[in-house]
Specification:
Blueprint lengths: L1 E6 L4 E8 L2 E9 L1 H4 L7 H23 L8 E7 L3 H18 L3 E5 H7 L4 E2 L2 E2 L15 E6 L4 E8 L3 E7 L5 H11 L6 H9 L16 H4 L15 H16 L6 H26 L4 E5 L6 H13 L3 E3 L3 H4 L4 H12 L24
Parallel strand pairs: 1-4, 4-5, 8-11, 11-12
Antiparallel strand pairs: 1-2, 2-3, 6-7, 8-9, 9-10
Helix pairs in contact: 2-3, 4-12, 5-6, 5-8, 5-9, 6-9, 9-10
Adenosine-5'-triphosphate binds next to helix 5 and helix 6.
Length: 364
């Protein structure tokens, strides 16, 4: 099926078009530059930027794909989770398009959409290297690690259309959010991820031993008796620990060792994320792990994830970065999967749901 996908859950306005598993267009406009001086995404600014960017982004995607709205089989839009006002812009636009064209409309889950890029063929290659079938199933178990400015989650994906479970999630800050906040403490620019990644290249990851959140026996338990937070994350204590170190240097009037702190902070984040993801995968029989979200760009995360997955016989799928960060193609990919699976469209009577649980793949 020929499906158009619309994404506006955070600061990216994305419109993607797929034909079955083929990616025809993936146009993204980001308002990130407008959030720089605030050091984080400001919801009102993001919403207004979506309003301004939507029509040009749609037109560009249609032109790139060489298709018209009339040719579409369906339209899909991110219904949640995400920022309420931002989601509402995309949902309203999608409803207007569906109403005007008479096309079926699917309100879909943003997190499941991130995993759906594994279905796509892009630049002549399968994103997941042939590991996923047309239904989005991996023969020997599929897991996903989503790490972005708003999310840090480990998912078990039985069937992209009907069976997705949350194995673990952050109980406070998201990984990308921790990068952004720590970058601020270190006087680095927003977004903090790339800035810390770069600063860390010249630093010693063992210079400071920062806390690994929810990683001691009390939270992890054992394989026989898993702790409540075995696969969960916490990054707020880490952020506080970095703040203390920075304050101590400032109090002494000494120069802050930015590279060492950046490298040590990064090591703590990446160590916990990869350790818990690999543990969740092995304990749940998931032999393929797909990485998604903007933090997937992190050089140390990629390195350690490769290393630890290889050690445990897990095949790691790292999609091209344009498909890891928020985009419309992933929404279209999930929409196409739902159409193929005969899942009923949502229709026009639904509202965006900022807290949509991952178990709900599409609204009905
Ligand atoms: P959502 O959470 O809804 O998926 P988002 O806009 O918050 O959306 P993305 O756009 O996917 O998230 O990613 C942005 C985040 O990724 C920022 O927090 C940024 O700091 C982080 N990031 C980008 N590059 C890197 C990197 N090299 N290392 C670590 N973090 C990075
Ligand atoms: Mg973003
Ligand atoms: Fe996202």
């Amino acid at each position: 099926p020929l499906v158009l996908g619309i994404e506006t859950s955070c600061d990216e306005t994305g419109v993607g078009i797929v034909r079955g598993r083929d990616l025809l267009a993936n146009t993204v406009s980001s308002s990130m530059d407008e959030h720089v001086r605030f050091g984080g995404v400001i919801p009102e600014i993001a919403s207004r930027a979506h309003l301004e960017a939507f029509v040009p982004t749609l037109e560009q995607a249609l032109e790139t794909a060489g298709v018209t709205l009339e040719e579409l089989d369906a339209i899909a839009v991110t219904a949640g989770p995400g920022l309420a006002g931002a989601l509402m812009v995309g949902v309203s636009a999608a409803k207007a398009l569906a109403l005007a064209t008479g096309k079926p409309l699917y309100g879909i889950n943003h997190l499941v959409a991130h995993v759906s890029v594994g279905l796509l063929h892009h630049d002549g290659a399968a994103v997941a290297g042939g590991l996923l079938d047309a239904d989005g199933r991996a023969a020997d178990g599929l897991g996903a690690l989503l790490v972005s400015g708003g999310h840090t989650e480990i998912l078990r994906v039985g069937d992209l259309a009907a069976d997705v479970a949350l194995l673990g999630a952050t109980i406070d800050d998201a990984a990308g959010e921790a990068y952004d906040k720590v970058a601020r403490l270190l006087g680095l620019s927003y977004p903090g991820g790339p800035a810390i990644d770069a600063a860390a290249q010249g630093g010693d990851p063992a210079a400071f031993r920062f806390p690994r959140g929810l990683s001691n026996a009390k939270y992890m338990g054992s394989a026989e008796e898993p702790g409540k937070h075995r696969y969960d994350f916490s990054f707020s204590g880490l952020k506080t620990a970095v703040a203390r170190v920075v304050e101590a240097y400032e109090a002494e009037g000494e120069e802050i060792p930015v590279a060492d702190i950046a490298a040590s902070f990064q090591e703590s984040v990446v160590d916990v994320i990869t350790r818990k993801a690999v543990l969740a995968a092995t304990e749940n029989g998931l032999n393929t792990l797909l990485l998604g979200g903007g933090v997937a760009a992190n050089s140390r995360l990629r390195e350690l994830a490769e290393e630890r997955c290889a050690e445990h016989g897990i095949r790691l799928v790292v999609p091209p970065l344009s498909l890891c960060t928020d985009n419309g193609a992933m929404v279209a990919a999930l929409g196409a999967r739902l159409v193929s699976g005969g899942i009923a469209p949502t229709g026009l009577e639904f509202a965006a749901d900022p807290g949509l649980p991952v178990t709900q793949v599409s609204l009905r």
